[in-house]
Inverse folding.
């Protein structure tokens, strides 16, 4: 039972991380109608920036904040220099162009940081486990991730639904020309939205960095998962992304944790160890295929279009 | 027939002649690497051509097309491991499994549109990718070595480099010919009509779903054949062949070369794969004044040039290589 709770928390933590990545992606997709494959590169950059700044400043928090700012700036530069020119073009053009950006950023990271991976050590106060239930110890860092991501989710909801900026974002999403005609600087608005998405991706990357190694190409597999999340949730819907992200996170983690034992009943243990992770990954794509077959526009379609 | 002399046709003819003459050239110079490289280019051009049938002519962006390369390859690999070495069995099995898989995927995904179609084809491809990762008996993540190329009962010897190259080239040209017959037939007209305006095609009375599904299956089957060739060429098959970035490569080839153009995917494959080989050499040459060591180190970072190049193609060369050549023709 304790194991189940612990794995559910792990799933929740992974799902929330996916949400951070997916939120930026779904904003950019829903508002600018841009398929940004290079979103995973921003995730990678966030992790690299964090590893560097933390070792420079010797403080996890200051390093993380600096890394967030740096990713935000890179994201806005990326939008101004390249992606702005791709709005209104065919999705295939987006795929080709941003695929090129992935190559560029992977190689840039190799030039700047070298081919070997980095690691981001945790500060002492985040290492020790906390007893959250009698007898159940859970790593403080993972709790910190859950709390941060939930706070970001609330912040995003308030930002989009309750502020003037959010109103402009929603207006820009439903009718770009009209919003521009009413005197809103739509270019600046888009750059800001893109920067926000980039910062969220960077945040996901830097929070994941202490758990995994920081390496080139780390954004590519998780990017596809983030795409799955926004498709299941319905493109442009932050609420959908939130629910789908937690669903995908739970399925992935719980599948990985419990399928090996289930499969061991059928196969020998070596086979079970190979097949189980593959099967839990397959379940996610199966979920997406089923959702799309039943609801071709995702769980929470944005009806305005 | 003045148009035969137009730059576009001249370039196509030059590329095809070059491909035909390549083994003779390498025989003279003894550069065996070129044949290996170009066999790979020809096989991937065939895969890209098959993708172009649905992507360019049918408007169906399949973001999971490398899965058919993988299935075709695994058909060869798995049968070889189980002791069936005959290409007469291996290749048709690969093609048939691909056709069947495409039929299932197509039937389930063609309901969706646009980005959702892109993502659902990706989802099915990822399913097979992870299935491959979980194939414990056949190497799982590490893949499967194929000791011998498919045998064709002494009719044709695939272990001979030049013979294998010409077989691949013949199959590529056959695929292009088949595509040209298909898209210029009534079937192709309906397919292209459905790309431009599906509602109108249905209103005229064409059951567009069936046409699109048929094209999807043909495309998958052709790509499966390319997969069988690729596995024979590398003597190796692993889930990495089906990774989503490989599907991205195929899309890049089609878009780079020119969508809905018969020879576009071939141009795209030649351009992309020879750039991958040539860029390091070019960078090394350009950086040589900075010292040999620096030049070699800079040449390693060739992708930093290739990436932005894609972006430039998207921004300034609409319609890819074929589009540029067409533009030159008009001027």
């Amino acid at each position: 039972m304790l194991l189940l709770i612990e794995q559910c928390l792990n799933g929740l933590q992974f799902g929330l991380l996916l949400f951070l990545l997916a939120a930026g992606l779904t904003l950019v997709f829903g508002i600018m109608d841009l398929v940004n494959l290079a979103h995973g590169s921003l995730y990678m950059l966030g992790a690299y920036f964090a590893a560097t700044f933390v070792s420079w400043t010797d403080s996890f928090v200051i390093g993380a904040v600096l890394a967030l700012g740096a990713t935000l700036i890179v994201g806005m530069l990326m939008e101004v220099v390249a992606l702005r020119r791709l709005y209104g073009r065919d999705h295939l053009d987006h795929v080709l162009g941003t695929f090129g950006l992935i190559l560029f950023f992977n190689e840039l990271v190799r030039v700047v940081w070298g081919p070997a991976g980095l690691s981001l050590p945790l500060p002492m106060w985040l290492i020790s486990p906390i007893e959250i239930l009698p007898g159940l110890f859970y790593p403080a860092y993972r709790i910190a991730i859950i709390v941060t991501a939930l706070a970001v989710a609330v912040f995003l909801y308030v930002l989009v639904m309750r502020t003037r900026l959010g109103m402009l974002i929603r207006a820009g999403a439903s009718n770009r020309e009209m919003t521009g005609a009413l005197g809103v600087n739509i270019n600046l608005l888009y750059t800001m939205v893109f920067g926000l998405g980039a910062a969220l991706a960077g945040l996901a990357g830097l929070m994941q960095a202490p758990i995994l190694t920081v390496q080139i190409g780390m954004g590519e597999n998780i990017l596809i998962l983030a795409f799955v999340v926004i498709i299941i949730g319905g493109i442009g819907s932050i609420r959908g992304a939130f629910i789908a992200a937690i669903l995908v996170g739970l399925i992935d983690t719980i599948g990985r944790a419990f399928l090996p034992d289930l499969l061991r009943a059928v196969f020998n243990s070596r086979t079970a160890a190979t097949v189980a992770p593959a099967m839990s990954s397959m379940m996610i794509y199966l979920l997406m295929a089923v959702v799309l077959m039943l609801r071709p526009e995702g769980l929470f379609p944005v009806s305005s279009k | 027939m003045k148009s035969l002399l137009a730059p576009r046709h001249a370039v196509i003819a030059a590329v095809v002649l070059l491909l035909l003459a390549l083994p003779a050239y390498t025989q003279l110079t003894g550069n065996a690497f070129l044949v290996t490289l170009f066999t790979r280019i020809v096989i991937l051009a065939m895969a890209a051509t098959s993708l172009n049938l649905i992507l360019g002519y049918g408007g169906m962006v399949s973001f999971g097309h490398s899965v058919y390369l993988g299935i075709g390859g695994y058909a060869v690999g798995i049968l070889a491991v189980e002791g069936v070495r005959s290409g007469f069995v291996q290749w048709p099995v690969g093609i048939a499994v691909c056709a069947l898989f495409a039929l299932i995927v197509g039937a389930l995904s063609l309901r969706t549109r646009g980005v959702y179609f892109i993502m659902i084809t990706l989802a099915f491809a990822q399913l097979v990718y992870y299935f491959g990762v979980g194939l414990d008996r056949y190497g799982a993540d590490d893949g499967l070595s194929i000791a011998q190329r498919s045998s064709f009962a002494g009719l044709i010897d695939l272990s001979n480099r030049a013979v294998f190259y010409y077989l691949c080239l013949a199959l590529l040209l056959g695929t292009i010919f088949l595509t040209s017959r298909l898209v210029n037939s009534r079937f192709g007209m309906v397919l292209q009509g459905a790309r431009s305006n599906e509602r109108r095609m249905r209103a005229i009375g064409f059951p567009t779903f069936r046409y699109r599904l048929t094209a999807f299956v043909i495309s998958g089957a052709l790509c499966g054949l390319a997969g069988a060739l690729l596995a024979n060429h590398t003597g190796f098959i692993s889930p990495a062949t089906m990774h989503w970035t490989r599907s991205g490569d195929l899309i890049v080839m089609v878009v780079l070369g020119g969508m809905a153009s018969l020879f576009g995917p071939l141009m795209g494959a030649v351009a992309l794969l020879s750039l991958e080989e040539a860029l390091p050499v070019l960078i090394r040459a350009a950086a040589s004044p900075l010292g040999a060591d620096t030049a070699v180190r800079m040449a390693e970072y060739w992708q930093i040039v290739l990436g932005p190049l894609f972006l430039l193609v998207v921004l300034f060369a609409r319609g890819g290589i074929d589009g540029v050549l067409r533009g030159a023709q008009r001027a």
Summary: Chain A has one domain: 8-120+142-294. The first strand of chain A starts at residue 129 and ends at 133.
